[in-house]
Specification:
By secondary structure, the protein is mainly alpha-helical. The chain is built from five helices and no strands.
């Protein structure tokens, strides 16, 4: 993403999005580092729940909710 400023600007103009500067929406260097890792990470929250941290939101629900909000705010198409 570090070199995708112009691509994002075109997407933002095409879809009438609220933010045309990619760097104000995300940190491209960080995203590149996260998505470019050659390994997958699996985590287990069962120990936290055993210690009393029982409140949670299912990952898919959290993502769907977030992306819907970003669409409503015209930050993503």
């Amino acid at each position: 993403m570090a070199k995708d400023d112009e691509t994002w600007r075109k997407i933002a103009v095409t879809h009438g999005l609220a933010e045309r500067e990619l760097g104000r929406l995300a940190s491209p260097w960080h995203t590149d580092a996260d998505l470019g890792r050659p390994i997958e990470v699996v985590t287990d929250m069962s120990r936290c729940r055993k210690l009393g941290f029982t409140g949670y939101v299912a990952t898919d629900d959290a993502f769907f909710s977030l992306f819907e909000r970003l669409r409503q705010e015209r930050l993503i198409p």
